[in-house]
Amino acid sequence: MKKLISFLCLVAIQIAVIFHVSAQSSAKAVNGDAQIDLSGNWSFQIDSLDQGVKQQWYNRKLKEEIKLPGSMTTNGKGDDITVNTPWTGSIEDSTWFRDPQFAKYRVPGQVKVPFWLQPDKYYKGAAWYQKTVNIPASWQNKHVELYIERSHWETTVWVDGKPAGMQNSLATAHVFDISGLLKTGRHQITVRVDNRVKDFNVGQNSHSISDHTQSNWNGMVGRLLLSAKPSISISDVQLYPDIKAKQVVARISVNNMTGKAANVSFKLLASTDRPDAEKLKEVSVTRLVEKNATVEIAYPMGNQPLLWSEFTPDTYSMQVNISSKQTAADRQEVTFGMREFSTNGTQFSINGQPTFLRGSLECAEFPKTGYPPTDLDSWMRIFKICKSYGLNHLRFHSWCPPDAAFEAADRMGFYLHIECSSWANQGATIGDGKPLDKYIYEESRRIVKAYGNHPSFCMMDYGNEPAGKNMVKYLTDFVTYWKKRDPRRLYTTGSGWPIVDEANYNSTPLPRIQQWGQGLKSIINGEAPRSDYDWADIIKKWQHPTVSHEIGQWCVYPDFKEISQYDGVLKAKNFEIFKDQLEENGMGSLAEDFLQASGKLQVLCYKADIEAALRTPGFGGFQLLGLYDFPGQGTALVGVLNPFWRDKGYVTGKEYSEFCNSVVPLVRLPKMVYLNNEHLIAPVEIAQFGASVLNDVVPAWDIRNENGDVLFQGKLDKTNIKFGNGIKLGEINVALSTIERPSRLSITVHVADHQNSWDIFVYPAALPATDQQIVVTQTLNEKAVETLANGGKVLLTLKKGSLKADKGGDIAIGFSSIFWNTAWTKQQPPVTLGILCDPKNPALKEFPTQAYSNWQWWDGMAHSNAIKLDAVSKDIKPIVRVIDDWVTARPLGLVFECKVGKGKLIVSGIDLLSGEEKRPEARQLLYSLKSYMNTEAFAPKEDINIEKITSLYN
């Protein structure tokens, strides 16, 4: 008996082992399909010499093991990072490869790159994945498919050594018909994945493939399964809502494998989760189906169908059932929405109501895994955060997300702009007869077939910023093709350009406050601050809506606290380099201050950009670059959120959404700095794209001082506010004569539940006299030197351009923060991130300021050079500091004090004298510094040799 029991146990163990190796031996029925889940352990082998096909690896057992869904990197597979790693993506900041400054980051085993987030391992080439499965007898004579939800990227499949085909979509599932290759029993499925750039070069910087963003990973993620369908089955369902006719037209594609024509019964029933919604009736029809057929059925949606929009994200589920006498029944459930995303003149509309796109880019940044999530919760979190910052729109830059992103956007009421996996530039072109031309049509058809029913899928173009001598004709034809083929969404050529009459809308970078390469000649850096400009003159020549392309691009200092958050496959080695540089320059303790101060300036710049778009009558919308950071292209820290969609501590969603929302009060201020003998006169407007007309509202405004005390207030006429922008509400008109002291004031406009605020600065028109014994000079002339020698006081205010290049004269500063970054813009100015100061410093008592740049610093930044403090002394603690680019992290100052012999000196990199009569900020700052110099608080500690000071300037 004991021997028998032992024998039976051994048999049971062997059976268990067989079933483990064979994956799932029983099929699971879902939506009319039987499915075998292929997730789990797979055999694996790297094919670095590209010999696998020649050596027929599909006929042998692979040597290693890997876990899927996943990538080689998530499984620790691949090569260590070296200076020879064959990255995918342009590297503009190539000095890393040769500059002695980076030598320690090129040491084998300790390599750190500044170009993008760095993976733990890297591999580019072919890799092989293999799984043994057991096919049940119930699958006999069924239509069997291998489903790979997302692969990166090209897959070639063999079943028991027999080829099953190749697929190369970057945007949709790879689905292989393997019906003729499977019978009951055990089978070996082999998949070769190749992540090298193909002959249809989509562009090495495309976010669908590039190391700049998600990383050029190799693997398979999302749902991995085999499915068996009846021999007569549904292959596709496309639903076309018509809100005017109150119906949806279903186009149902049927696959008939029986070899005979069959009468097929179709039953359709739409339903929704809304308990108060009208109950809809089932529709039944019968059609004769040959080998393959598409059947069109109009389905009535009742008397009052629920309409999908950002305010009412109501969706329906359409259940499609087919049956015939020859085979088992099949069914599919498809989510759709009753909506019409269209245009009305130069603006967009949703279900006939005007809407304004408030968008950002999604650039495929997923540091935990290096590839996009395919689960609903991850995408719901992203869209909830976007909504909390006032957005209603997301553009997927040169890539297309998985189905879960569309489902989440459906539920949240988000308008999605999808691109066909390409950025044909920097080594690639479109429209020149290359294989990419054909691939874009194939990819776009796959995208629309896979995701076209989602109501959130509202816009599409080929991809980002194209190049090619024939691109205009090609992209015009592309738009024409899709407008005719599928009217469920709007189409344009490419994001950024070109503009053609045939497009439904324009995408152009022209309407924004800083153009690429514009430097210090832009609106924000070249003109005194104001909030009364718009883009009406730019868009007046176009007849359809305009979306401003990639507005913002305003940088912030790295958040070194963020480094610890990178606990996945991508690491912030770039941040480690920048942190080292800051510490080597003796400013490690200022990292958090730099982050917060530059962050406040960043928000101010974004507010200016967004409000300019909202002020423009008839404008279509904007797409930010971006709401969150872009870690590639040399590190572009352009987000108020980090790549994990977490805020950095200097602005909340609630604060941001005051100036970025469906309803935003606006004030057209002709300037931001006033004298107290002036009137403040400013028109009040509103951009109103909310859920409904605002009836019987009484707009109100107030002006408060820094303590929150109301100095002025008023109400505007009661009104009903319809949809649109450029809607005039009235005017603020106040005399500033009661403002006796230099002040920072805050103007707030309230409309219903919405408010928005602006800081202005008011200075006395007449200033008291100061001690005439203070020598104010632009050079240390004989009088100044003598004054210092005798123990006197000197204020040296350097003329702009007089600072020597090696002392800081070659550092281009302006008011705004850095645009994109200095590496990819080739040092486009400004190369700094605003100022940092102590607002309580007595030297600034008469020049009200926060710790960071606000509009009153525009004049100073426009008339100054940043002084390299280590050219004077490494111990200098400036009164006003300039925050340098994180790559160089130089200690820079605008204003500092020191002892020179017996005397006391303030050095200002701001020219406070030239044109002073037209520069109230310069006049006030000069007065503040002189007033400070007349107090006992003026007691500088650092003793500097006078030659150090005179060596600063020409």
From TrEMBL:
<dbReference type="InterPro" id="IPR050347">
    <property type="entry name" value="Bact_Beta-galactosidase"/>
</dbReference>
<dbReference type="Pfam" id="PF02836">
    <property type="entry name" value="Glyco_hydro_2_C"/>
</dbReference>
<dbReference type="InterPro" id="IPR013783">
    <property type="entry name" value="Ig-like_fold"/>
</dbReference>
<dbReference type="Pfam" id="PF02837">
    <property type="entry name" value="Glyco_hydro_2_N"/>
</dbReference>
<keyword id="KW-0326">Glycosidase</keyword>
<keyword id="KW-0732">Signal</keyword>
<dbReference type="GO" id="GO:0016787">
    <property type="term" value="F:hydrolase activity"/>
</dbReference>
<keyword id="KW-0378">Hydrolase</keyword>
<feature type="domain" description="Glycoside hydrolase family 2 catalytic">
    <location>
        <begin position="345"/>
        <end position="494"/>
    </location>
</feature>
<feature type="domain" description="Glycoside hydrolase family 2 immunoglobulin-like beta-sandwich">
    <location>
        <begin position="233"/>
        <end position="339"/>
    </location>
</feature>
<protein>
    <recommendedName>
        <fullName>beta-galactosidase</fullName>
        <ecNumber>3.2.1.23</ecNumber>
    </recommendedName>
</protein>
<dbReference type="InterPro" id="IPR006103">
    <property type="entry name" value="Glyco_hydro_2_cat"/>
</dbReference>
<dbReference type="Pfam" id="PF00703">
    <property type="entry name" value="Glyco_hydro_2"/>
</dbReference>
<feature type="domain" description="Glycosyl hydrolases family 2 sugar binding">
    <location>
        <begin position="38"/>
        <end position="223"/>
    </location>
</feature>
<feature type="signal peptide">
    <location>
        <begin position="1"/>
        <end position="23"/>
    </location>
</feature>
<comment type="similarity">
    <text>Belongs to the glycosyl hydrolase 2 family.</text>
</comment>
<dbReference type="InterPro" id="IPR017853">
    <property type="entry name" value="GH"/>
</dbReference>
<dbReference type="InterPro" id="IPR008979">
    <property type="entry name" value="Galactose-bd-like_sf"/>
</dbReference>
<dbReference type="InterPro" id="IPR006102">
    <property type="entry name" value="Ig-like_GH2"/>
</dbReference>
<dbReference type="InterPro" id="IPR006104">
    <property type="entry name" value="Glyco_hydro_2_N"/>
</dbReference>
<dbReference type="InterPro" id="IPR036156">
    <property type="entry name" value="Beta-gal/glucu_dom_sf"/>
</dbReference>
